[in-house]
C-alpha cells in the first residue's frame, strides 16, 4: 500500500510554478471549475513527496512540459486559508495550506498539452497582464516578485 493510499485526506501543501519565456510572456491556465479562474501551474503535494518532485510532476501533468533540473526552487512559500468549499478534502480542523514557489524559464513559447478535466485553455500573456489576470493573490504576488513586469 502506498503512503497516499494510507491517508484519506489531501495534504495541505501545494506548489505554484511560474512558467515564462525569455521575452517575458507568462503561461496562465484557466481551470474548468470555477470557470474564469486563471492560474499558473499549481497542485497538491502527495504524501511523502517533496515540493520539487511535486513541481516537476504537476508541470508535466498540467502542460506536458518536462523540466527536470531546469525548474528553479525560489525558496519561498506562502500560507493561505483553505476556502470552505474545499475543506472537506482535508483532515478535520485543517484550515491552512502552504504553497511552495518555483519557476521555469523557456527560450520561447511552447505548445501546451492540457488535461481537459482540470483546465479549459492556456494563454501566454505579458507579465503585467498575467499578474492582472491571475485569480489568486499568491499567484499575483509571485509574478510581481519574480518576473519583470515591463515585458
Topology:
Layout: H1 3-6, E1 13-21, E2 25-31, E3 38-39, E4 41-44, H2 51-63, E5 72-81, E6 96-106, E7 119-126, H3 127-133, H4 137-146
Helix pairs in contact: 3-4
Characterization of this structure:
The chain has 151 residues and is of the alpha+beta class. It has a single domain, classed as Nucleoside Triphosphate Pyrophosphohydrolase (Alpha-Beta Complex), CATH 3.90.79. Helix content is 23%, strand content 34%. The strands form two sheets. The chain has a four-stranded mixed beta sheet with strand order 4-1-6-5, sandwiched between helices. Helix 3 packs antiparallel against helix 4. The chain is globular.
Top keywords for this entry?
151 residues, 4 helices, Nucleoside Triphosphate Pyrophosphohydrolase, alpha+beta
Mean pLDDT: 93
SSE order in H/E notation?
HEEEEHEEEHH
Whole-angstrom Rg: 15 Å
CATH level 1 name: Alpha Beta
Indicate the CATH topology.
Answer: Nucleoside Triphosphate Pyrophosphohydrolase
Q: Strand arrangement, largest sheet?
A: 4-1-6-5
| CATH arch. level architecture | Alpha-Beta Complex
Going by helix content, strand content and strand pairing, the class is: alpha+beta
Unreliable spans are none
Helix content: 10-25%
What fraction of residues sit in β-strands? 25-35%
Largest sheet: 4 strands, mixed
